[in-house]
């Protein structure tokens, strides 16, 4: 008998054992962020920052990175799938730091965007809009709603700032043994209907805005769906940090 998505569907709902590991994997990123911030400065390279983040993850007890650490600086921050290259960071850059580790087999995934030097007015405007979009999406998470409505909340908030056209990826993805699992938190697609949100799901909320040639902002956190809403598992502050 051919079957479809039986395992994937079962994996969307985490049991207490899995939730404990996912919570620890997310909370422990608090120990990684200070090293990440110390490593970001004008004159260093994206690759060196990624190395510092991965070393701090090992120090914090993670078995391995959950994916190739992303450090996207200056114009590269406008490329959501950039990894970490040899570009030298410079004053005025926005820098997207996207990292996560595997703990007890379970993944975490967080993104913060920082500024080297004081952010320009445009950088502040884009950051505030993405921050607002993420808050709107988190507020939209509750049992019984369609996953696409969480995406719509983020997209609507960005649209109010004229930035929905530069948000070219989905709002989030399930997190578990793999860093990308169901449910998909995105726009409705005829070929893959979106899931109904249920307690015990763990997924990311990661809206962004990417302005070619200028730079981009993404803010990503991991949430656990509860009986009435959600618990944000990642606890790193979300305010825009300016580094010297
Ligand atoms: N870093 C991969 C992701 O955020 O989905
Ligand atoms: Mn990520
Ligand atoms: Mn993610």
Q: Widest sheet: strand order?
A: 2-3-6-14
Largest sheet: 4 strands, mixed
Which small-molecule species are bound to the chains here? glycine, manganese (II) ion
Broad structural category: alpha+beta
Low-confidence stretches: none
The number of helical elements comes to 6
Write the topology of this structure.
Blueprint: H1 6-12, H2 16-27, H3 33-39, H4 46-59, E1 64-65, E2 70-73, E3 94-99, E4 101-103, E5 106-107, E6 110-116, H5 121-140, H6 147-159, E7 172-174, E8 181-185, E9 202-205, E10 208-211, E11 215-218, E12 221-225, E13 230-232, E14 241-243
Parallel strand pairs: 6-14
Antiparallel strand pairs: 1-4, 2-3, 3-6, 4-5, 7-8, 9-12, 10-11, 12-13
The chain binds glycine and manganese (II) ion (2 copies).
Give a concise summary:
This protein is α+β, with helices and mostly antiparallel strands and 244 residues long.
Describe it.
The chain has six helices and 14 strands. It starts with 5 loop residues before the first helix and ends with a strand. The strands form five sheets. The protein has a four-stranded mixed beta sheet with strand order 2-3-6-14, covered by helices on one side. The chain is globular. By secondary structure, it is of the alpha+beta class. One manganese (II) ion binds at residues 109, 173, 204, 206, 220.
